[in-house]
Specification:
mainly alpha, 5 helices, 83% helix, 0% strand, DUF5790, coiled coil
Length: 139
């Protein structure tokens, strides 16, 4: 094996280590961007709409999706270059984090939908109650 081949292999090994480190760093940044468990569980509010709005805010994933995307890009590059000796742990962590982010984003959307619907329901219930009072007054 010539010296230049050894140097290229050595450089490739260093690049692979850096790539793995970058994937791990992006995954850590994604996890840090996720909401805290207590933030989605302990919400203070005076009414249901306030609680829903607080929950919607608590379910904001921040930059987690962008960090996950960056991790996946580095992972795909490393995988295609066959740079990782064992990347099963990275793939598993990426898959788990992706599923968690999607679940949180789905919950965020559901809470947003409910928060948007709740004032309409309240108004309709008030109209119905006002109609009952008007009917009772007519009798």
């Amino acid at each position: 094996m010539s010296q230049s081949t050894f140097d290229e292999d050595d450089l490739f090994g260093e690049a692979a280590e850096e790539m793995r480190s970058e994937v791990e760093s992006h995954l850590a940044d994604a996890r840090e961007s996720l909401p805290a468990a207590d933030a989605v569980w302990e919400i203070e509010s005076d009414n249901a709409l306030g609680a829903l709005n607080a929950l919607k805010s608590a379910l904001d994933t921040g930059d987690a999706a962008e960090h996950l995307r960056a991790a996946k890009k580095q992972y795909v590059m490393g995988e295609r270059a066959d740079a990782f000796e064992d990347a099963a742990d990275l793939e598993e962590e990426i898959d788990e984090l992706e599923a968690l982010i999607e679940e949180i984003q789905d919950a965020h959307d559901d809470v947003g939908d409910l928060a948007g619907t709740l004032p309409e329901i309240r108004a309709e219930l008030q109209d119905a109650a006002d109609g009952d009072e008007a009917d009772a007054a007519d009798e």
